[in-house]
Amino acid sequence: MAFLIIAPDTKVTSWVKHLSLLDPGIDVRIWPDTGDADEIEFALSWHHPSGEFNKYKNLKCIASLGAGVDHILTDPNLPAGVPITRVVEHSMAQSMSEYVVLGVLNHCRQFDAYRTDQSKKKWQPRIPQLAADMRIGIMGLGQLGTDVANKLSTLGFPVSGWSQTFKNIEGVDCLAGADALDDFLSQASILICMLPLTPKTRGILNHDTFDKLPTGAYVINVARGQHLIEKDLLAALDSGRLSGACLDVFAVEPLPQTHPFWHHPKIIVTPHISSITFAKAVAPQIIENYKCAQTGKPLLNVVDPKKGY
Ligand code: GLV
Q: Count of domains in the chain?
């Protein structure tokens, strides 16, 4: 049995090291040097070429290298019946929460404005709004969304969460389903998108959504670039409907050099680093699934391709 890493634009040295430390006998192949395709029974994947998995007729598991599986499920030529797994891991939730808390606090305490003031040697105290007056709205209450909700709630922010199916999180006002969306949006001074990318959620950050938020709301997108209609965001920022946005994900990555987001005074751009997959932390669950695939035991963190997460 061989283990294939198929992640064309990703450095995989650290993955090979940590997988091999946990399973010294492992036969890791790195795409495109696959060797005999019939020996491949497990694929660790991040942005594989479409249709590629059909070449491995003994494949028993396609494992996403991250939390999201949209990069796998958008392939129209997936082999039928091969289970797909995702990563669910504490360090990913921790790094995501660090990023989102920083984005929220940076906005509330106006650090960008102070940097500009500093460059002009301007002493200009600004009165922040009380955390208690800034309701946070989190779209998507999976492992990452729940961790962010708990951490922001601990900091004193009132937090609402919206998800496809109802969740119960202590201290968080949880709403679910399309009927509850308007109510959820109408209260969110800071809207945070943490949804999986599915046909239902694609383009959900659009003009109608922004129009339902309180005037001057702030948007953080740490999910996928395809959730956002970019021109609607620019229009909402220019009209003052939104006060700013912090974006970690984009429809095209790397963000093209000529893209208007780079220079927009109300947009913070980061290069898809909000939640980091640390090979050292994640390798144990990948190896566990590799062993389950070998022995026929149930796999961990299997996704439902129909739901998309
Ligand atoms: C990152 O975007 C992930 O899906 O883990």
A: 2
Domain containing 21: what range?
2-89+277-295
Task: Name the packing angle between helices 90-108 and 279-295 (round to 10°).
Answer: 140
Catalytic residue IDs: 224, 272
Mutate to test the pocket of ligand 1, among 9, 277, 301 (most ligand atoms within 8 A of CB): 277
Whether ligand 1 lies within 6 angstroms of the CB of 196 is answered as no
Quick one: 33 and 103 in the same domain? no
Shared domain for 154 and 182, answered yes or no, is: yes
Please answer whether residues 273 and 102 qualify as being in contact, where contact means their C-beta atoms are separated by less than 8 angstroms: no
- Residues 148, 287: one domain? no
Q: What is the pTM of this model?
A: 0.95
Helices (H), the chain: 13-22, 70-73, 90-108, 111-119, 143-154, 181-186, 207-212, 230-239, 279-295
Take atom 5 of ligand 1 and give the residue whose Cα is closest: 66
Q: Each residue of 242-288: pLDDT tens digit?
A: 999 999 999 999 999 999 999 999 999 999 999 999 999 999 999 99
Instruction: Note whether 155 and 243 are same-domain residues.
Output: yes
Q: Which atom of ligand 1 is nearest to the CA of 224?
A: 2
The answer to whether residues 76 and 166 belong to one domain is: no
The answer as to whether 303 is a domain residue is: no
Cα angle 237-235-224, degrees, rounded to a multiple of 5: 80
Compute, in angstroms, the gap from residue 190 CA to the centroid of ligand 1.
22
User: How remote is the CA of residue 196 from the centroid of ligand 1, in Å?
Assistant: 10
Which CATH number fits the domain that encloses residue 222? 3.40.50.720
Minimal-distance CA residue to ligand 1 atom 1: 66
Residue 304 lies in a domain: no
| Separate counts of helices (H) and strands (E) for the chain | 9, 12
Q: Is residue 308 part of a domain?
A: no
